Amino acid sequence: MDTLVKPEPTVPMACRSCRVRHGGMCEVLGPVELARLAACSRRTRHGSGEALAVESDAVHGYANVTRGTVKLSRVLRDGRQQLVGLQFAPDLMGRLFSSESPLSAEAATEVELCRIPRDVLEGLVADSEGLKQRLLEQALQDLDEAREWMVTLGRKSAVERVASVLLLIATRMGGRDAHGNITLDLPIGRADMADFLGLTIETVSRQMSRLRREGVISVQGHRCVVIHDIEALGARSG
Amino acid sequence: MDTLVKPEPTVPMACRSCRVRHGGMCEVLGPVELARLAACSRRTRHGSGEALAVESDAVHGYANVTRGTVKLSRVLRDGRQQLVGLQFAPDLMGRLFSSESPLSAEAATEVELCRIPRDVLEGLVADSEGLKQRLLEQALQDLDEAREWMVTLGRKSAVERVASVLLLIATRMGGRDAHGNITLDLPIGRADMADFLGLTIETVSRQMSRLRREGVISVQGHRCVVIHDIEALGARSG
DNA sequence: GAACGGATTTGATCGAAGTCAAGGACGGGT
DNA sequence: ACCCGTCCTTGACTTCGATCAAATCCGTTC
Asked: Which end of chain A is more exposed for a tag (fewer CB within 10 A), N or C?
């Protein structure tokens, strides 16, 4: 908000240059709390496709996403898969207060994490009123988003779903170019879009083509989408 | 847990006989906090179908469900509807920290609420560490459930969805009869089941008939379902 | 920059669920 | 006990998205 950078005497070095220092959960932490975290946290990098957590495995710790995109998914016994969310920086990954992970997490792009051991974060949550409050707000917002997505999965047609996912990604990652168009570098391929939307790859592809034919978007290569008419895309999204 | 009822000197009268006194959020409150609540809360009853909150309306307050079942839903601009959750006693209704309701709530059955004004609950949350913790746990669990339902909506076939909703209701409301069968009084009709499952009324009805033909369940009247083989129902649910 | 391999697009056909249309059962009230 | 309205079930047909099968695109490597 304010343009002046206040001196923060004891903020750990590792946090000072951190891209998410003023976002996500770290936003509400003071120097003392950050020091407690920084003493035990460590940064890791992960290539696209790397598994970061596995459904029903023990929870070893938590991690702030500091760069990249993470896919959250669940699978049915016979292998059918559903993406249940995407996490972008500066979201916190990991299920508090549960000893086993309710879902799988996988790096969708190159990902950088700030890993926090389980007991350290839980201790901090227990001690910091502000952090608990922040995580509660985050959980409630995630819940709203999950329920919104339930409408997409339960009631929207294939085009509407594809338009919805493009809007979702645009909201989190979109940058405007010179002409006011919104440009996206999709963090996920068609297969993941299909798993997120409850469709097949072929149907996603067909609906992308359709939106392209209608002039709402254009596509460069496979991963880059330009949204020409965000209004039209919104209308198309149900 | 324990069979002895401990004397609780200053627990308000209204709470002493309350069905949910030892469940939901009230479980973690001490006499002082309960007194603060009881001083401002009031009980209301609502007939089936009555609107309890409307999407994007101002949030006036919160309410504990003390009896009955509440449907949570969202609608698309053109009227398509999706149920995004069911609330049973002793769940807390209402979206904390938001000035407008992200969804609509409607009594599915006769419902009894313990209504709490907005500022009273928010004040209590600010003051009570334990309550904030409890609500965070609840939000995280609701999030897990919402994501689980996303799998149902995105990846399951019609039979699997119907089996899933029967299991869900059985978990929250089911009673075992003499033969070990589980008996349900469905809190929602076929239309609401359809809206919860992302299907049509006709499809729900056909799949109910199918499960009946297969001997997994039987139906008495429209609302009463007996689950003969919960294992088979689980297998049928994906 | 040519060749390779995985990802994406497109086309043809199939099938599960939706739509439209009766018909039947339940339950509430008289 | 009967009647009536609502909710539910069933049947016939349609449709949207899935499936199967190529063809093509693109990014990468050599």
From this structure: N
